[in-house]
Structure formats: structure tokens, C-alpha cells
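Below is how a single chain appears once it has passed through the pipeline. First comes the sequence as given, then the structure the pipeline wrote out for it. We keep one example in the README because the format questions we get most often are answered faster by looking than by reading.
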Amino acid sequence: MVKGLDLTSERSFDSTANISNQEFENARFRSLLASLKFLLIGKNNELVSFDKIKKGFGLYKQNYLGVQTVKISDIIGSIDRYRDFDRYFLPKKMHLQRRWAKIHNLLLKDVILPPIKLYKVGKTYFVLDGNHRVSVSKKTGVKYIDAEVTEFITGVELTPQMDHSEIFILTER
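Resulting structure:
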């Protein structure tokens, strides 16, 4: 972890900032195309809402698992940012650009960022803190990310391969 790292600073970085802003625009455009595709085939392109899962499965018992290395493709949802990113963690909204580009810029410079925070349900994960870091990491081809993980205990086995409709059917049982 980098001491004194301020991810909220307004100051601009060097010329890699232009690359990061272009990458954000590219990611946002890809999200728009994916949304159109999913609209045409009648499927949901949003991240899974942890609140819906928590209420549907009655998740309350939890265990702190500590810092682990997690496969990014196993992260399927978010606690409170599920409307800001699509199911591929591509940014959907312009207000995400500044922070997204800042994180991208830091990764270009090989800055080690702090672990994200995840909730684990079955074999899937939901972002508590670090949605932008997951988005940028996924967009740049990173396969694994360090995370502080808290597991919610459930008798239902959620997997990253499940379709949104399968997950929500399970929550309504």
C-alpha cells in the first residue's frame, strides 16, 4: 500500500491522464453497446444488487475471512453502486469519469492500491468498497485482485456462471 495516497485529489496527473480518459470513454461506449444488445435479447445488463440477495436469502450470519486474492470474474454485484456499472463492470455514467480515470492512471504507473472490500455469498462476490478499482482492473485485463472478504452464510450455492434471472428466481423461493 502507498502511504499518503489520495484518490480524491483534484490535481491532474501527467500525459497518461489523456490515455486514462480515452480508456474511460471506450469503456463507457462498450457499456452502451452491451446495454443495447441485452435490451434486444431481453436480458438484464446490470450488476446484481446485494440488497436483493440479502433480503431474498435472509443473509445475516457472517464471517470475516481476511485479505484474499479473488478472481475478478467471480465478482457479480455491488452493495450500492450496481446501477453505476454494467454486468461487466463497465462504467455507465459520466460522473464516474474523474475517479475511474484517476484509478486507471495509477494502475498505468504500477501504483499498488489498497485491497478492495467484498462480501462473499456462495462462490460469488459483491463490492462493498472498490467498484472503480474492479472496473479498471477488469477493463485492463487484470484477472485477480486483493480483497478483504466477509462471507455471508447461506444454504444456496450462488455461482458466477448463473444468469441474473436464475439468481432472482432463487431469492423468491
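Residues 8-13 have pLDDT under 50 and may be disordered.

See the next section for the split statistics.
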